[in-house]
Amino acid sequence: MNHIRNFSIIAHIDHGKSTLADRMIEICGGLDKREMKTQVLDSMDIERERGITIKAQTVRLTYIALNGKTYILNLIDTPGHVDFAYEVSRSLTACEGSILVVDAAQGVEAQTLANVYQAFDCNHEIIPVLNKVDLPAADVEAVKLQISEVIGLDTSDTIAISAKNGSGVRDVLEAIVHSLPAPNPINAGGLCAMLVDSWYDQYLGVVILARVFDGEICAGMRIKMAATGASYTVDNVGYFLPKKTVTDKLKAGEVGFITASIKDISDCNVGDTITEERAPCPKILQGFKPSIPVVFCGIFPLDSSEFEKLKESFQKLHLNDSSFSYELETSAALGFGFRCGFLGLLHLEIIQERLDREFNVDIITTAPSVIYNIFLTNGQMIKLHNPVEMPDVVKISKIEEPWIRATIMVPETYIGNVLALCEDKRGEQVDIRFTGNRAVLQYLLPLNEVVFDFYDRLKSSTKGYASFDYQPTEYREGDLVRVTILVNAEPVDALSMVVHRSKAEKRGRALCSKLKDLIPKQLFKIAIQAAIGGKIIARETVSALRKDVLAKCYGGDITRKRKLLDKQKEGKKRMRQFGDVEIPQKAFIEALKISDD
Predict the structure, then answer these.
(1) What is the average pLDDT value for the chain, to the nearest integer?
(2) Helix, strand, or coil (residue 78)
């Protein structure tokens, strides 16, 4: 175990984690030169297209150090975006140390702070690394000063590298071998391993990624899941080199995969302890803190016959992404579907895209919302996930909404834009600090203002230079109302939303205006209205298609024409009374893209 090192690479988005992992794989000979490609550990198509890491990936490398000794390095490459922070926390629990990568041109960013604090919580030894030192804008000394001032790390042993061309990467490998601690056995008295991640393979069943803390796992062994009590016979064990390689056994301190023909997805809980069936270890590992979803929306199949397929897809997605949660829901407009919880809007977007690509399911999503605490006049408190379920106003004594503490790092030039945006979103300034030519802003913001378009507007108002991270803090009382959209006097529950009273009219008008262009014309006028309770706050009208009933009249008395027009008018009145307006799915999707602008 003295020759094993388990470590993660942590950094802000686009600071070079995956590129550094590529160079380490090259130096350690994990792949031949012809097999190498950029961001080799970003295996999903979405990751490669967007240029971001979504899933933490592991690879086992064999490194011969300058002292001639051979070391086993288990590297976990982690995501940088705030929406995938749960992936980072799980990866860090399986390691003893971290490499903190900071861009020598951009400096310390919001997510750099968030990730390094998670590493501190796991008692990690941290090696600071400055990447992209070959860029003309790189300022090594200024960024070192930022790291020591903002994070509080000793920067005397900071390693300057360029992951793109490979310079300095061997120094990082030497630092891993000499500065990071070897794994310690926990003396649990037998096999004790943690289930770090899992995914579904249509041929092998559930594949488990495990970190062995004590004992060993080999093929043919009967293993037991501590949380569910399910037992299985191990078929194969192995490592990712980064190619999948089967081996005899996984020993204490190692990270690898296990296959055991597991068909029941619910038996594999992330953070669970894996032990031997005949001699279970008395000490159960602590596991991970459960992730807390902050954004909710309804997901429904486009075709109601695909409901079972969608349910199966969700089970497999949850297995691979435990921060995604779902429960059954029904809607008058959309039928059977699921109420889903996400860690942010990017997380929601990625899940939507994975459902389309990996499972080929056509879906429709309702407007994103957050959890509200509703206090009723009878003293009861209920949690509101879906705006449709909001009780009658007369039964409500007060409504509380969740607030977050946001950390925004931005160049001095754009401070005015960021302050104006935060004020517009009902924000409260907590702190403002300056390090070099950058400002670190601390703001308290209502979460329901952030989930709509805050991130997009922040990026556009700062030309992409601002970075943003947040933590949920508290619930506060707010003047909140439910805005209901009525089409032809019928409420459309999929478009209901809870907003602050001051923004209700603006949001209602924008939604009605958008729907007017999206709903196809009928043979009668269609009224699109936004309402708060019984009060209409906005209205648009889709004009009627007019059939030319006078086409066959070639002259003649005006009374004959008048009779035909009156008959048409009566027919339209009856149609408006009984006519059913079908809202196309495209209208739902487009209507949900509305921003406050």
Answers:
(1) 82
(2) coil
